[in-house]
């Protein structure tokens, strides 16, 4: 079954076709990588499928449901979660508050009044523990290291119980030990049935972690397949190296 599918997805900025007639399928249950040179349309593709920007034409389907015109919160609600290239947390909220506002049911008002459900706090602790940052529950997010903030962002995404998780450069600005930890986490979460789509510049991470890699160049896929095949594909070498 396809988790995410696009059909003829197109978005231009001025004269630039950032995403150009993209028809791709993300198969459920796999760790998928999305790579490509700078400016090849990866971020625009992420923003289109998560509803942050609207396509000029084409459609986005999640588990065969047409979500093309859905607002971002509605897309999250159907089971699609994402992180951002520049990690997004609320700096002046505590780690636990960040977790609780990530849940659709917990509004800011309930949070401030302390009337959120205990079960949500338990769920938040579960995810913080899995990310290894449960000891920071009461710390303000701005006092966490950048790597810890990335783990917090990831933990918060899981409060929405996503089936498909889009990670935008999870290894960016993160030390090698933490990259290893993120890879292990993604593998474990995948083994538990979650699908991933990862945009990442760190080629070792992509090739070592992903089952399937899609390569973008100038707004569209030019190759896809298992890492070993993609790595040896002449079109990919040309896009990256100009050879
Ligand atoms: P990638 O994530 O692969 O680096 P992007 O999706 O960021 O690529 O960019 C694809 C193309 O679209 C680039 O030429 C970029 O300059 C252009 N682009 C992206 N976002 C905007 C925007 N908001 N306004 C104008 N041009 C944009």
UniProtKB/TrEMBL annotation:
Please name the SMART domains in this protein's record: AAA
Q: Which keywords describe this protein according to UniProt?
A: ATP-binding, Nucleotide-binding, Transport
- PROSITE patterns cross-referenced by the UniProt entry: ABC_TRANSPORTER_1, ABC_TRANSPORTER_2
Question: What is an example of a Pfam family matching this protein?
Answer: BCA_ABC_TP_C
- Check the record and name the CDD domains matching this protein: ABC_Mj1267_LivG_branched
Q: Does the keyword Transport apply?
A: yes
Q: Which residues form the ABC transporter domain?
A: 4-243
Signal peptide feature range:
none
Q: Which SUPFAM superfamilies match?
A: P-loop containing nucleoside triphosphate hydrolases
**What is the protein name given in its UniProt record?**
ABC-type branched-subunit amino acid transport system ATPase component
Does the record's keyword annotation contain Signal? no
Classify the source by domain of life: Bacteria
Say which species the protein is native to.
Answer: Nonomuraea africana
């Amino acid at each position: 079954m396809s988790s995410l599918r696009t059909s003829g997805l197109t978005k231009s900025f001025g004269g630039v076709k950032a995403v150009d007639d993209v028809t791709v399928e993300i198969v459920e249950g796999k760790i998928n990588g999305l790579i490509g040179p700078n400016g090849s349309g990866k971020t625009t593709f992420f923003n289109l499928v998560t509803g942050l920007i609207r396509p000029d034409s084409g459609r986005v389907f999640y588990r065969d449901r047409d979500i093309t015109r859905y607002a971002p919160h509605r897309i999250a609600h159907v089971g699609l979660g994402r992180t951002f290239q520049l990690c997004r947390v609320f700096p002046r909220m505590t780690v636990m508050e960040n977790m609780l506002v990530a849940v659709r049911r917990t509004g800011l008002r309930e949070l401030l009044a302390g009337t959120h459900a205990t079960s949500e706090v338990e769920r938040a602790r579960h995810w913080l523990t899995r990310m290894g940052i449960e000891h920071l529950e009461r710390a303000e997010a701005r006092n966490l290291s950048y790597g810890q903030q990335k783990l917090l962002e990831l933990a918060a995404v899981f409060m929405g119980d996503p089936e498909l998780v889009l990670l935008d450069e999870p290894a960016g600005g993160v030390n090698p030990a933490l990259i290893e930890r993120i890879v292990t986490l993604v593998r474990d979460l995948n083994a538990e049935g979650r699908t991933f789509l990862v945009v990442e510049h760190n080629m070792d991470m992509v090739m070592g972690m992903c089952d399937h890699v899609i390569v973008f160049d100038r707004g569209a896929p030019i190759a896809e397949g298992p890492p070993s095949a993609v790595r040896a594909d002449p079109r990919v070498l040309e896009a990256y190296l100009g050879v």
